[in-house]
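**User:** Everyone, produce a chain:

**Assistant:**
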Amino acid sequence: MYYQEIIPGERLRPYIRCYYIFESENNVPLEDIVFPGGHMEIIFNLGEGFWQSAVNNVFCTTPPVELWGKITQPLAVRSFGKNRMLGIRFHAHSAAFFLHDDISRFNDQVSDLQAVLGNGVKALHNRLLETPELHKRITLIEAFLLNRLAGKEKQAAGIAIVGRVIEEMNENTTLADQVETIATRHRISSRYLRRLFLQHTGVSPKLYNKINRFQLSLQLVTEKHASLTAITYDCGYFDQSHFIRDFKSFTGFTPSDYTPADYPVSQAIAGK
């Protein structure tokens, strides 16, 4: 299994967190669970294998170009064959610049990007399959994204507000219950802030912060360098029972029962 991240070009860094490559040479079927994360992704499948994700407990094969919505609950996935994947990981609020849609409708599912954006996606996928060099593939993707970005100035103000609030939340995980205070600081109503979050991130400010706090705790639990008590307070939880309850709701396991080695895809692609 191989995983590598690539830094976007300067013009796209405000919108794209990273590109990444995920490769698996193993022909043995792989089962995994993707845990809630703060970012939407686009994934181009460029290998011989294929993936499936669970929809109402039934596994469905994912499309050649996947749009991953905001994951807010554990999502079971499995793969078959040798995989080559080239992914685009957006910042938490920036996918809205490229999709022309209500982001929340993509939550907790893997959608067909061609159905969302049209035939240009299929043409791009075909060109990526025909282009073996990684740097040329990134050039093709960036040209596509920059073309999608053109003329989005009207969206910029609302998304910028969400971006600034997210920066605050990333710096301070105790802000979950202070939406009114945050909104006042940005001179907007809490209702308008919630509407902006739902439109541009797919989730409310409170749920975004809850997932963000969980992701931090997941990293610390995986590293196993701190006690559960230390993790509880380092991540801004009120008490240990609150931490354990949230962790179990997002993974299906208590922190003590979670074994990172059992979920290689989730660990390799930690941004989902």
User: Anything to note?
Assistant: DSSP finds eleven helices and ten strands in the chain. Residues 165 and 182 are 7 Å apart (CA to CA). The two ends are 17 Å apart (CA to CA).
